[in-house]
Amino acid sequence: MTASMPRKAALAAWIGSALEYYDFFIYGTAAALVFNKVFFPASSPATGTLLALATFGVGYAARPVGAFILGHVGDRFGRKRVLVFTLLLMGFATFAVGCLPTYATVGVLAPVLLVVLRLLQGLSAAGEQAGANSMSLEHAPERRRAYFTSFTLSGTQAGQILATAIFLPVAALPQADLLTWGWRIPFWCSAAVVLVGFVIRRKLDETPVFARTDVAKLPVAVLFRNHWADVLRVVVAATIASVSTIFTVFALSYAVNTIGLARTPMLWVGVLANIVALAAIPLLAGLADRVGRKPVFITGCLACGVLIFPYLWSISIGSYALLFVLGIVLFGVAYSGVNGVWPSLYGEMFSARVRLSGMAIGTQLGFAVAGFAPSVVAAIGTGKSDRLGVSIFTAAVCVVAAIAAATARETYRVPTAELGGKPPASTPESTMVTSTVDG
Predict the structure, then answer these.
(1) What is the DSSP letter of 354?
(2) N or C: which end of the chain has fewer CB within 10 A?
(3) How many CA atoms lie within 13 A of 249 on its CB side?
(4) In sequence order, which ranges of 140-262 are alpha helices (DSSP H)?
(5) What is the pTM of this model?
(6) pLDDT tens per residue across span 189-204
(7) CA 182, CA 170: separation in Å to the nearest integer?
(8) Best CA proximity match to 58, nearest among 85, 97, 19, 18
């Protein structure tokens, strides 16, 4: 492996994730602001909003299916194939959303087609992060795995910045223009950025760890035989992504549709928080390389659980100054403690034979819960006074995720080739060096 390969792998993960999640999050923004009127106009405003947010969640429901399929492909045939495929599938599905007819044109067929394309987006996203994380982790230098894998999530934040920023001029359009043609522009723009990501990923080498691995014929069988507890642990910990979906989708809908705040300032909260996260994620990941994955991840979870209360309260009273400050601290700093560390925390639980499957299946089952979090909290209530119930729900998810991470083994000093093994009973977690145990 050349000295530049870790940087190339991190760059490929960053750019690919930025492009992939640009596509994914423009859907979330459109679901919060537009789709209730374009695809569900026959429903009451509250029901239309609930249905639009549910289509956002449908993409997460498809992720576990994609995780099993793409996890098998990645652990059987290589990480690179998965990364190229997911990028192209997401690009097609996203561009096609921008071409859909509306409910006024074709009736119920419009939301049906929307759901189908959202399912394809979910299938793609199922393999994207797990593939990018596996690629960057297996190329990374020892003792710097958290730092290099964190670029996958920095790319995700960049994608959210692009998705939110492109909606700023679109959201400022007159209502009639926004609902007819304006909302389609961000979806069509994905074609150009997907092409860039495809060219970059085609030039990336397969990881040396995978090249030396005795590939299993059925990686999922090995995964559930030897790593079922770690899969369950990742599933529960990954529900912390509910913070992201509630912040980016529910809070936006709550602010604009319930409280009556302006769309543009609320979109800017997301942009600024993600800009801060671009710096915070690698810094906090670097800290995890020095002190361990668990302390940083758990602290991030608990901080999110506390900060969601004042953030939603600041929206309810219409204080732009407070919601900007609290939104940036919550999503730009506290949640970055989670995002900067989970790629290494989860990935290091598994051996190379099953790493992509383990990460994909574990995270996507947890993310499926997170994807429906905006719908769950919308069912709790979308009124001004319902923010407390939403905050309690979010905080409970944060605490459960922190507990799941606390039960994990600390792996920041375990060599990459020996990850996924069983720790000797007499060796402290922080210094253990073990052999891989796979059947």
Answers:
(1) T
(2) C
(3) 31
(4) 145-171, 175-180, 185-188, 190-202, 208-211, 219-226, 228-238, 242-245, 251-253
(5) 0.81
(6) 888 878 887 887 887 7
(7) 6
(8) 97
